[in-house]
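Let's sit down with a protein and look at its sequence and fold side by side. Once you have written the record down, we can walk along the chain together.
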Amino acid sequence: MRADAARNRTAILTSARTLLIARGPEAGMDEIAAEAGVAVGTLYRHFPTKQDLVREIAEDLGAAIAEVLDSAAARVAAGQTTAADELLSLIRRVVVDLGEERLLRAALSNLSPEPLHAMRAHAVEAIESLIATAHRDRALRPGISAEDVGLLLAASPGPDVPEPARSRWTELAWLALSDHCR
């Protein structure tokens, strides 16, 4: 791909992501092209349909999340950290640091569900592995499951809540999960 075409593609993806976060699925292709500073025809050459554009954004998001989870599992396997520390880090990252990604996931869920299903399946598998290891280490309360972590994350405060409150929520959630009394 020529350098200018690669720049245009990157600008389109960045603009689409920004507009999907801000406006949700209603963001139009004309708006995305204008935000990216490209002609509508250029946008359509890269992404013939809005679904193609959204699918690529969803796949990129899924790949980024998979990389985070796989890196966490690798650190635990290498003995560099504990599964409990990685779970806490993951919860903090989702609740405090990745507010925009949560909004993007919500916007994409109605537009491109296939890549998101794969992302969820990979996330559940990785979290189940971390939880099993944390249970073996006696760092979690008995009975805590990946579904419990998912429920906590689904009910967590969004990016509209100030960061100190999201950080405190993370601490409280961890107290609910951890077996700190042993």
Notes: The chain has a mean pLDDT of 85. The chain has two domains: 1-48, 51-177. The longest helix spans residues 50-77. The two ends are 58 Å apart (CA to CA).
